[in-house]
Each structure stands twice: as structure tokens, then as C-alpha cells.
Amino acid sequence: MVDLIAAPFDWCGRLSGSRLGPIAMRMAGLRAAIEGQGETVRHDLNSEPLTADQPLNRDDIASFACEVYERLKSQTLDSLRSGGRPLVMGGDHSLSIGSISAALEHTGGDLAVLWIDAHMDLNTPDTSPSGNLHGMPVAALSRMGGAGSDELMPSWDRILDQIVGKPGLQGRVGWIGLRDVDPGEANNLKKLANAKAWTMQDVDHRSVSGVMAEVDAWLKASGAKNLWISFDVDSLDPIYAPGTGTAVRGGFTYREGHMIAEIMHEWFCDASKPYRWIGMDVVEVNPLADQNNETAKMAVEWVASLFGRTVLHRYAGEPVR
User: Is 128 part of any domain?
Assistant: First the structure.
């Protein structure tokens, strides 16, 4: 069973508009696309009311963001505990602090994360050039940068201790599609012994299928029995997904993006795999920067591929572990 959880919140990003992402994906047929693959959508919920208001003070934004993450964590945890597979619709990528914290708590830390994104999102308040939380969720989930960071971001300790908690991700995060990484993030990566990053250069050299074979091997070696997928639409080239506030040229093509989803679906139908897929985020769809809702449509089509849609309907109706 799939639980759709909309989180229309974008105060921690560079541009406003991704708070409209959930309604754009709903209007693009997200529920029908999932149900068309034989899945049951049990709930379609909102974790937050949609509002046009936004404070200007960064401390106030961070404090309110913590409340958003806590509410999203609670709803995601309810879904997981009741046997659902939550699909969180953002909103900016900082929302993953809430959703993945729920997955960490539910699995007792036995979790790996695939972060499909142009960006690493591994800054801490000390290393971030912008100070925006949407560039920090993986660092928060990895419990990095606690000492001294509260001078720059008063809510950081609250995020690490009250929302994420211990042990955090323990470095079990893999990135796919990177092409815009800050120097501080590259430095922080060296501190995560179990992490692995695949850039677009790796994809160019070894192909999507080659990189995904390496991802599968990494997941097996991580020892994690549970997998969370965090999909940022800016992993796709802006030619195909223009409606995002964090677009970077040189991303996945339409077919490359779908191949990633199709390969992962094959994993999830393979009982020999030692890990299972328990939930996901789809974030950074920004209709204000889009053309004819193309990015939301692309996101919906990508999710449908992840749930098993293929040209010949080979996996239609086949259950996902």
C-alpha cells in the first residue's frame, strides 16, 4: 500500500514555488499512475496547509522548518508502522530531514538512502555558501557539524538531536547524478566512510546500467536491509525538467532517468536482493518555473517507471517487495 504525503513547504530553498509541487503532481495524475501499476493508494494526505506566507528572518524560517520536519516525520512514521510505503511529495529537499528521520526510527537505523540529485546536499551551517537548509539535509541526517554550528544555525542542534536522533545514517548514503558540488561538501564526504558518490562523469564513462550495477553492489555491501529513495527532479536535465529552482545543465536525459527507475524496479521484484524499498521522496517540482506542467508530468512518469511501468507492461501488477 502506498501513502501519498504532500509537504507543500519551500521556505528553505533559494526560490519559492516548489510548495506547489504536490498539487502539480496530483494534477499530472500521480495517483492514477501508481494505481495503474496494480498498487493500492491507501491515503492522500497533506502534512502542511498550503500558504503564501513566509518570514524574512532566517532564524524564524529554521525554527518553523523544524516544526514542519517534526510533523512530516510523525506522518511518515505512522505510514511505515501501519504497513504503508510513504511517497512524500515536496516541496524543497530539506523535507527529507523529516521523512528519512522517520525511516531511520522505524528501522532502528538499518537504512540506506539513494540520493538522486544534481547536488550533494551535504553542507553544514559552517560550510554552506548560502545558509539555506535545502543544501544540508544529508549532513543533518548524518549528524554532521553539531559542534559550534548553533552559532550559525540556532535550530541545527534541534534537528540533529530531536528530529534525526541517533545513530543517524551512519554514512550509508549513495548519490547518483551529481554535477554541482561545493568544496565544503566534498570535504564532508571524506568523513563518511560508508558513503559512495556517482557523478554524471561516472555515468558518461560507464553508462547508466554500469553505474546502477555498482549501486546495487554498494547497497549489498552496506548491509542495510531497508532502502529509501530521495528523488530530486533537478537530477534530470532542465531540457526535460525545467520547472525546478535548482536546475543544472548536463543532467540525465529522459531515457536515462527512466532506465534508473526501471532498473530499480527490477531490483525490488527480485527476492534474492538483501534489501527492500520502504519509501521515497519526490521533491523540487516548481510550477512557477515550469512550462505547461512538464516537470510534474516527468516526475509522475518517473514514479510510474519505478512502480513497474514498461513499454510491454512486463511488470504490470507484479508486487514490489
Answer: yes
- The verdict on residue 317 lying in a domain is no
N-terminal to C-terminal alpha carbon distance within the chain = 11
Of these ranges, 47-56, 139-148, 157-166, the one predicted with the greatest mean pLDDT is 157-166
255 falls within a domain: yes
CATH of the domain at 262: 3.40.800.10
- The pLDDT, as a whole number, for residue 13 is 82
Per-residue pLDDT tens over the stretch 259-295: 999 999 999 999 999 999 999 999 999 999 999 999 9
Name the active-site residue from 185, 234, 290, 301.
234
Considering the domain boundaries, does residue 314 fall inside one?
no
Count of domains forming the chain: 1
- Given the residues 92, 232, 237, 262, the one annotated as active site: 232
Report the mean per-residue pLDDT for the chain. 93
Q: Is the pTM of this model over 0.85?
A: yes
- In the residue annotation, 93 being an active-site residue is answered as yes
In the residue annotation, 117 being an active-site residue is answered as yes
| Predicted local distance difference test score (pLDDT) of residue 152 | 57
In which element (H, E) is residue 62 found?
helix 58-81
3-state helix, strand, coil in the chain (%, to 5): 45, 15, 40
For residues 16-25, give the mean pLDDT: 96
The domain in which residue 243 lies consists of 2-306
